[in-house]
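Supplementary Note 2. Why include the ligand at all?

Several targets in our set were suspected to adopt different conformations when bound, so apo predictions alone were not considered sufficient. For every target with a known small-molecule partner we therefore ran a joint prediction. The input for aspartic acid is given below.
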Amino acid sequence: MRTLSKEILEWEGKEVEMAGWVAGRRDHGKIIFVDLRDRSGITQLVFTPKDKDIYETGNTLRSEWVIRVKGLVQRRPSGMENNDLPTGKHEIQVTRLEVLAQSETPPFSLDTDGNDAGEEMRMQYRYLDIRRPRLTNNLRMRHLVQQYVREFLSARDFVEVETPILGKSTPEGARDYLVPSRLRPGAFYALPQSPQQYKQLLMVAGIERYFQIVRCFRDEDTRGDRQPEFTQLDIEMSFIEQQDILDLAEEMLIGLVRALYPDVILTLDKNGRMPRLTYREAMDTYKTDRPDLRKNTEDPKELAFGIIVDFPAFEWKEQEKRWDAVHHPFTMPQVSDVGEFNEQFEKDPGQIMAYQYDIVLNGYEIAGGSIRIHESELLTRIFEVMGNKRKDIEEKFGHLLKAFQYGVPPHGGIAFGFDRLMMVLQNEPSIREVIAFPKTGDGRDLMMGAPSEVDAEQLKELHIKVDKE
Ligand code: ASP
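The joint prediction is reproduced in token form.
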């Protein structure tokens, strides 16, 4: 039976079998030390010339070979302990050694945190890069946070519902990724920029409390630390007010930080709550709508959340010469009905506030959401003032407007940028460090070589001709 590094303390004086990768080898005269790495940590193996065969094979071991050993768990001689390692007081006196796989010399060293290696190389050999404890730990913590969130929401009667990846284009401000339909020449699916309309339709369907940890796709130009595909924690609720969603999000975030990051300093207000500011207050005080509320920005262990409310509903798009929704067109303006909306819009569109909110963490926007418009008339009017023709509205949003004719509950929601949340929690400089297989800034997967050209035959089936100009 295999014993893991994290378990060897319980096996002192006994024989164990272990397996893993060679993380390093040091020759000390007659003694060879090998660090064995498995998913739980590192254990020191000792080879002495007593057993000639094993010793000689031990001598051939190189970094990243895969081996299986048997040996005796013993205490290291005094003075030889390594207090930096949880297993640093013990070592394995090897009595059997089997090489399971050899390895080429890795293109970069794996016993650093990786920040020294070129990023293109790291992405190309991501399966090696992930062997670093820092990366392995990021993926493990990402899993634990997802597990926490799933349990938290499930315990509150939320249902995780999967929504389609092959869908229809939604107007959320970014360019869609399109997928050609083979069976309907000239027609395309769009990959979801977010499941916004589906989750609202689930509210019409009576699910009442929905969440999903979901992949979203936006075909944007290289802009900062973004990925063409990214993960959202998406939430929607019926029969609630803005306050209810924000309270839920706050309780979940504080709970998960306390449970999974017990060592961090969580900066809250004097009532133990996340500070809430209006958009105006944030802009006046901090000159940004994603203020960094940490007390001491030098401290890598401090987390400061904040909630920003009352965003303006519309912004002027100079290029397109039209008003656009600051969040998305489904967001409820702070008006009582279409009449009041029309009046206010005529006066000054820029002055209309929305039931819209963001959550910020250490100066990053980690979540955003809104209360939705659930009256077809107001929703149609909003589409109109944003420059859509009646006919286009029917074509683009007819399904939603129709669904709203069949008993739509008041509803609202929020979505967390899960990669960004993990980046800040793990104190990493980029979301690429918390994603198993990230893409480059210009959308390439260097390991798989995607995107790639496809066979002429495949294109023909899809009724596509490529124009390379
Ligand atoms: N779908 C929105 C977004 O991706 C979030 C929301 O309003 O729930 O930003």
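The domain at 127-434 is CATH 3.30.930.10 (BirA Bifunctional Protein; domain 2). Residues 194, 196, 368-370, 413-415 surround aspartic acid (CB under 6 Å). Comparable summaries for the other entries are listed in the accompanying table.
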